[in-house]
Every structure is written in structure tokens, then in C-alpha cells.
Amino acid sequence: MSIREVHKKRKSLSGKPTIVLTFFACLACWLTSYFYLVGFPASAGTAVYPLWNLMLDFPANPTVAYLLGVILSITIAFVIQHINDTDMIVGERTNLPFTLFSLMAAAAYGMHPFNEASIALLLLVLAVNSLFKSYQKPESTGSMFNAGVYIAVASLFVPRMLWFILLLWMGMYRFSMFNIKTFAASLTGVGSTFLLLFTVCLMIDDCSIATSLFSSLIDFEVYTFEMYHIGLSAVILLTIIAFLFISADAFNNSVRVRQMRFFMANMTFFIGLMIVLYKNDYDTFSAALFIPSSILIACFIESLRFYMRFIAYYLFITFGLLFYFYGLWNF
Predict the structure, then answer these.
(1) Which residues contact 208 (CB under 8 A, 6 or more apart)?
(2) How far is CA 130 from the centre of its chain?
(3) Which residues of 172-206 are buried (b: 16+ CB within 10 A; e: fewer)?
(4) DSSP character for 267?
(5) How far is 129 from 122, CA to CA, in rounded Å?
(6) Rounded distance, CA 70 to CA 31, Å?
């Protein structure tokens, strides 16, 4: 690495001081949740989470539960970072998508212990990764089959995640890869997963798992705002501002980058609709919102001038911590 590159890195948000500050901000949130055992032990709630209800007794140790929660969140952040590094959605190589998602996940105490939301989100981001790597490849039936499987398995943990198959088809259409073969491949991925589920139901002579899963899809409960949700409201507002800002400068980017950014905006709107319709799954869908938000907000921050970039990022950390402790106080 040349001296010029080293100097440039020190002036970017990928420098060591920023990384260290982000690490300690996340660590403060995780340790606080661990100390107060926020979200532990997990509960089944309504009996519509087939796989999760079988895993409720694992892990029984809070230390293991929080370590697994951290590992899952970091893994999701790495996949988001991989998506950006592969497709250069932000516009340059930066670790902002990773750090922003990590900060938002750390501020969302519902994601701290090992739970169904973290597993479902990992599967969702893997489905998005399969979609993006198949950009304008109408013959990529294998990737669409995998994406269908990811979404179907995610719905076994959180049944309403099955609606994301609509988002997948929307992305296939936007990326010029929607045809009979790819559509059939995604349906086959979903169908094969549920065929296996029905087979298990017949073997144990209990179809209540399958029926409760599908009935939950139309079991709507409209969201009502509560003050400790103010952090999510701030993320949504910042994401909208970020999208409007980068849209004004959209034609300075390639068609590929523009389409992927617009897909992330569509994903934000879609998840927002899920939050409104399914109050019971608020924690899951609010955490899912962090996936597109981390990339769109990263695009916005990277488009700012040098000092404004640092100010925006440090304000993001500050308000993230404030919203976390405010939500914890009212938990």
C-alpha cells in the first residue's frame, strides 16, 4: 500500500479510530443487555413458529445465547458487506455497511440473544445475496432455487417471512431475469421446503404446524406507535432522506448500481408495510429494515464532504446509543 493510500485510509471512516469507537459502542450495548438479560429466556408467544418452538430450550445458558446472538449479527453484517464489495453499491470500497448494520443491531436489544429473528434475517440476507449475484443472468435458476429455499426456511422460524418471496420476484423483474425458468426455480425452492414440512407432519400425524404457519400469514394486527420505538422511526426517516439525496445524484452512477439502490429502497418500503400489518413480529421486521438501511445510509454518508462525513457518522453512533438506552429504560 502506497503512502498516499495509507493517508487516504486514515482520512476515511475505515480508519482505526472509527473502527475502535464503533466496536466499543456496540460492546457497550451488548454487555448492558447481557447484564440485564434483556430478551432472555426466549418465549414461544403464539405457537406459529414451527422450528423455533422446537429450539426454545436451546441454549439454556444466557452466555451461550448472547454469544450466538453476537455471532449471527456479525455474520449478517459480513454478508451485507460482501454484497457491497461485490457490486460496489455504495460507490467505493468502504466498511460502512458492516459498521452501520452492527451499530443498528447493537442498538436493537431484541436481536441480542439468540432468537428466531436473527436466524430468519441471516436467511433473508442470503436470499438477497443470491439475487444480486444473478443480476441480469436469466439462466441463473440455481441461485433462484437457493433464494426460494432461504425464504421458505426463514418462514419456518418466522412464518410471515414467506411474503418476501414477492420481493424476490420484484427484484428478478427489476434485474431483467424474470422468466418462466427462474420463476419456476424460486417456486420449486419454496415448494420443496414445504413438501418436506408436510412429509414430517404426516409422519408425526400432526398437521397443526403447517396449518398454523399458513393461517398466521393472514392474521393481521395493525401496528401502533409506542415511544420506545422512536429509534426505528429515526432510522426510517434517515433512510428516506438518504434515498432522496442519492436519487438526486443517481445518473452519476452505473445502471447496475442505480437498480440495486432502488431495490434496497423497495425493500425498505416492503418491510415498512410488514411492520404496519404485523405488530406481533415488530422486532423481526424492524431488524430486517437494517439490511437495506445500512447500505442506503452508507451511500448517503459517503457522498458527503470529508468533515461532514465524520460528523454524520459520529452523530449516528451518539443517537444510536441514546435510543438504545432510552428503549431499554422503557422496556
Answers:
(1) none
(2) 14
(3) bebbebbeeebbebbebbbeebbeebeeebeeeee
(4) H
(5) 11
(6) 11
In angstroms, rounded to a whole number, what is the distance separating the alpha carbons of residues 128 and 143? 10
Bridge partner residues of 278 (DSSP): 221
Helix (H/G/I), strand (E/B), else coil: 210: helix
Q: Compute how many other C-beta atoms are within 10 angstroms of the C-beta atom of residue 244.
A: 11
Measured distance CA(107)–CA(327) in Å, rounded: 9
Residue type present at position 89: I
User: Residue 166 is which amino acid?
Assistant: L
pTM of the model: 0.89
Work out whether the CA dihedral 203, 204, 208, 213 comes out positive or negative.
negative
pLDDT tens for 205-254 read: 777 777 777 778 888 888 777 766 787 888 888 888 888 888 877 666 78
**Where does 122-266 show beta strands of DSSP type E?**
none
Grid cell, residue 220, equals 393481521
3 state SS for 4-63: HHHHHHHCCCCCHHHHHHHHHHHHHHHHHHHHHCCCCCCCCCCCCCHHHHHCCCCCCCHH
DSSP 78-106: HHHHHHHHHH-SSSS--SHHHHHHHHHHH
